[in-house]
Amino acid sequence: MKSAAFEHLRAASIGEAAALLAEGETRLLAGGQSLGPMLNLRLARPRRLVDVKRIPALRALAADARMLRLGAGWTHAEIEDGVVEDSTRGLLRHVAHGIAYRAVRNRGTIGGSLAHADPAADWLATLVGLGATVTIEGRAGEQRRLAVEKFCHGAFATDLAEDEVLEAVELPRLSPQARWGYHKICRKTGEFAKAIGIAVLDPGRGLARIVAGAVDGPPVLLPESSAALLASGAAAAGAALPEEVALRLAHLPAAEQALRLVALRRALAGLAGA
Ligand SMILES: Cc1cc2nc3c(=O)[nH]c(=O)nc-3n(C[C@H](O)[C@H](O)[C@H](O)COP(=O)(O)OP(=O)(O)OC[C@H]3O[C@@H](n4cnc5c(N)ncnc54)[C@H](O)[C@@H]3O)c2cc1C
To answer: What would you report as the CA-atom Rg of the chain, rounded to the nearest whole angstrom?
Structure first.
């Protein structure tokens, strides 16, 4: 099946893209790796596509001692290849490398992935695990910042208003003492995850976050296990996991909970071994 006809425009700025969005029946086109299949399956039938790939603000890059600000238009491949700095001691590059196949990574963007909000997406879980924030810009140039865990409301649902553009993600700069573990369970390389476990520990910054991803909705932060990780280390966090997974993932069938538990334990093992 092929897409229905649409008009194709290119926006030069976020303001222009947002103004076009406000006119309705319009979708932004970044890498097209999620929107393309949706158009072809006619799950999306916008009257107009607005290409945002050449908007300079979406390719911006800024860093300081505290954080890295990455424009929404950087591709998975550019992150994988280290074209942009990795402020997370290798976690970003590791995650990018595990997304789909190189052909998808060459075009797919971190912002497109977040805006699409597939619950099985790697960036969504990773950025919640890092406690990252997003910046969003509207038609009149007004900007707002939001924690990624608040940005995603549910499967394919975000806080973006119809006329807003996801501008950038802000990632913490992890200290040299920081450790992380990331485990993605999927049937074969290049597929979306069946389960994701992520654990990040940066004691100097008081940062400890254990997150279950690919859970049919927004990634789920496990606060008790995270607190145990910070206070007593990976073994204590591992001991707290079964009870907290049963509590916070109670909406999933037992076998699905077990899969997340395995992913989380392997993420913790990765963290402990790093
Ligand atoms: C075969 C295949 C396998 C895949 N496997 C994985 C995987 O293992 N893990 C994974 O995480 N992903 C996977 N993906 C998805 C891939 O990562 C996509 O690149 C990503 O989900 C969408 O990014 P994009 O830049 O292509 O966005 P697009 O497809 O262009 O857009 C997606 C949505 O986001 C909106 N959008 C785009 N940019 C912005 C913006 N700046 N502001 C507001 N809205 C915006 C669009 O309007 C659209 O609604 C896979 C895709 C394919 C085709």
So the answer is: 19
